[in-house]
């Protein structure tokens, strides 16, 4: 049997608001044993945090192993294709966990890589630190190139804009 792949934001929910037709379809998939996974370019949340986020909106029978995010993809790709295991990152717990899972050592002095994931709480100091590390030879790794994010009533800066800044 084939596996269905679902995006999250804008497909399953909008912010913290469930999309009812998605909820009904997911319940149908669970009832009929149709396999599915969630694939997201949002690197901020861990799979466990994604489960909690969705359950708080009313989804049920969701498990952490159903999620694959851009931080996981980026860290796995870099581990497979590049030498070095020291990383600095801009991001949230989802980024940190993905790097740790792949055996990266978090290093804010002499990393091989600077991973850039969305962090809505990032500061000028963290951006300046990342810039310094990149100028000293660390390779920049962006987790996605979305330049803007839709939000109720407008837009906000996306991860791609931050990556482009560097």
Average predicted local confidence, pLDDT: 94
The tally of domains stands at 2
CATH C-level class of the largest domain:
Alpha Beta
The CATH homologous superfamily name of the largest domain equals: HAD superfamily/HAD-like
Class inferred from helices and paired strands:
alpha/beta
What is the N-to-C succession of helices and strands?
A: EEEHEHEHEHEEHEEEH
Distance between the termini: 43 Å
Parts with pLDDT < 50 across at least 5 consecutive residues: none
Q: How many beta-strand segments?
A: 11
Residues in helix, %: 25-40%
Q: Count the DSSP helices.
A: 6
CATH-assigned fold name of the largest domain: Rossmann fold
User: How is the biggest beta sheet arranged?
Assistant: 4 strands, parallel
Radius of gyration: 17 Å
Order the strands across the largest sheet as they lie in space: 7-6-8-9
Query: How much strand content do the residues show?
Result: 15-25%
Structure, described:
With 166 residues, the protein is α/β, with parallel strands linked by helices. It folds into two domains: 4-69, HAD superfamily/HAD-like (Rossmann fold, 3-Layer(aba) Sandwich), CATH 3.40.50; 70-165, HAD superfamily/HAD-like (Rossmann fold, 3-Layer(aba) Sandwich). Helices cover 38% and strands 23% of the residues. The protein is built from six helices and eleven strands. It has helices spanning 20-31, 47-57, 70-81, 93-101, 124-135, 159-165; strands spanning 4-6, 13-14, 17-18, 36-40, 67-69, 86-90, 105-106, 113-116, 139-142, 148-151, 154-157. It has a four-stranded parallel sheet with strand order 7-6-8-9, sandwiched between helices. The model has no long low-confidence stretch (mean pLDDT 94).
């Amino acid at each position: 049997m084939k596996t269905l792949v679902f995006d999250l934001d804008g497909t399953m929910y909008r912010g913290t608001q469930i999309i009812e037709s998605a909820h009904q379809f997911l319940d149908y998939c669970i009832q009929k044993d149709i396999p599915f996974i969630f694939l997201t370019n949002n690197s901020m949340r861990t799979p466990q945090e994604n489960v909690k986020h969705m359950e708080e909106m009313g989804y049920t029978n969701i498990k952490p192993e159903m999620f694959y995010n851009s931080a996981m993809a980026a860290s796995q790709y870099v581990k497979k294709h590049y030498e070095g295991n020291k990383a600095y990152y801009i991001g949230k717990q989802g980024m940190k966990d993905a790097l740790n899972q792949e055996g990266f050592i978090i290093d804010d002095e002499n990393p091989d890589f600077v991973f850039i994931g969305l962090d809505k709480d990032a500061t000028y100091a963290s951006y300046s630190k990342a810039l310094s590390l990149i100028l000293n030879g660390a390779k920049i790794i962006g987790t996605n190139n979305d330049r803007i994010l839709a939000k109720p009533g407008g837009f906000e800066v996306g991860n791609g804009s931050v990556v482009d800044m560097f």
